[in-house]
Amino acid sequence: MDLWFSEHHTPNVKLSIRVDRQLYAGQSEFQRIDVFESPEFGRFLTLDGYMMLTEKDEFIYHEMIVHVPMAVHPNIKKVLVIGAGDGGVIRELTRYDHIEHIDMVEIDPDVVEVCRAYLPKTAGPWLDDPRVHIHYEDGLKFVRTCEDAYDLIIVDSTDPFGPGEGLFTREFYGNCYKALHEDGIMVNQHESPFYDEDAIACQRAHKRIVESFPISRVYQAHIPTYPSGHWLFGFASKKYHPLKDLDEARWNGYGLSCKYYTTTLHKGAFYIPAYVEELLKDVESER
Amino acid sequence: MDLWFSEHHTPNVKLSIRVDRQLYAGQSEFQRIDVFESPEFGRFLTLDGYMMLTEKDEFIYHEMIVHVPMAVHPNIKKVLVIGAGDGGVIRELTRYDHIEHIDMVEIDPDVVEVCRAYLPKTAGPWLDDPRVHIHYEDGLKFVRTCEDAYDLIIVDSTDPFGPGEGLFTREFYGNCYKALHEDGIMVNQHESPFYDEDAIACQRAHKRIVESFPISRVYQAHIPTYPSGHWLFGFASKKYHPLKDLDEARWNGYGLSCKYYTTTLHKGAFYIPAYVEELLKDVESER
């Protein structure tokens, strides 16, 4: 059997993964959903043909989008998660005993159902944690109704086209600001700075976040199955600075063991390459 | 025209790059050499079918292998470069006025000739800098004859199989130690920690370096066209610590502008993920 899944990262470069078999293929109201079994990456999920996660490297994305804000804000009790139907963000959040309430707003119930059936490493029993409240709604609309309600918002969106498009708009970031307490933090997946088209999306998202939040920084991780492998996250905050307010002793006191995240790596994740600094500075100065 | 170059990063994953045309194909005494023109990455060089550099992302590798040691050691005058036939390391080194002498030991004269003809962005006029002395010899043999001769050795090798194999041996690292002054530094390309086979090569190289040098650390960069995009370099040193002896003010005083390297990023490059720390610790404790 010589079966390959390929994702074009640009029209001129693609990453291909050998597939053992397809476990699921379906069309939801919102998107095409597929799950594959592969020898290199274990099971992996694609939406509309774009790689969402693989069992081998999802720990990097999920640890980095959750533990970075958790190590900065001293007392996160109420969290809003937009997207995240695969369950990975919820898995990492529910490791913190001091979190009291998690609203997860996923537009597509089929994603959750398929992940529960085929990806138990991310969509596991933590989705049934009594603190987790799943809402099958449009995140864009949900957040419009919230005010001064959350300590942390995690935007675990797909790419800035298709169903996830609205999650990269000025209106959405403004509503997230309003939905957060006065010391709240918003973290979002922020695309890659490397290929031209991704870099433009990244720059555009940063511009809009800078316009909504007083503190806006970008941090990076190595995610081998995402375009270029160099992935960014946005850290937007009303009060806490991602480095000055990092409390290493407090976070290490939680006793959570991670495969990627450490509080030392946390700092390095914000030390981005010169060309990425330039890319972001260009829009910061327009503010 | 639908022409693609592919590199298998493991038998089960491959990166493919659309090719506009092949500029060169030849067999030297040591290896197959090819140069391609591509819409995404500009020109790129492969040896035995393995990606060596592309015009779009070579700056990351070359800046990181050169500027990290240059920002740590206060007075590097004499440098030995093993490999580096593409000229990229020499380009970055010759930007420092205080370097007096560079020995470049490349086993394959054809690589230099082909790069001079087709890759002028790396094999440019700096190869004719009077401080640069090119030796077409086996680096393994060359370094055996040296003692207390260099401030810095840069091992810009191919992978640990084929012509580059000897450059990952205990004997070679021991000879590099001997070839360095009492405060010398050796930096080498150190493979990737992500895919199993690469991780083993990486671990093995680290074990051998730890056995030869009192200070041995690993640092990382995002290199999109290398396997997994997460690439490591080894920093081995007799005296200087890569972070404690980093002199940011001195390096910034040189006024070199880089696209990837900054002295802030320098620090973050050593803040490696938990699983990579584990991988290296395993062999450090065997020492």
TrEMBL record, chains A, B:
EC number(s) recorded for this UniProt protein: 2.5.1.16
Domain of life: Bacteria
Active-site residues per Swiss-Prot or TrEMBL entry: 156 (proton acceptor)
Pathway membership, UniProt: Amine and polyamine biosynthesis; spermidine biosynthesis; spermidine from putrescine: step 1/1
GO biological process: spermidine biosynthetic process
Assigned keywords, A-Z: Polyamine biosynthesis, Spermidine biosynthesis, Transferase
Residues bound to S-methyl-5'-thioadenosine: 31, 106, 138-139, 163
Top EC category: transferase
Function: Catalyzes the irreversible transfer of a propylamine group from the amino donor S-adenosylmethioninamine (decarboxy-AdoMet) to putrescine (1,4-diaminobutane) to yield spermidine.
UniProt xrefs under PANTHER family: SPERMIDINE SYNTHASE, SPERMIDINE/SPERMINE SYNTHASE
Name of the featured protein: Polyamine aminopropyltransferase
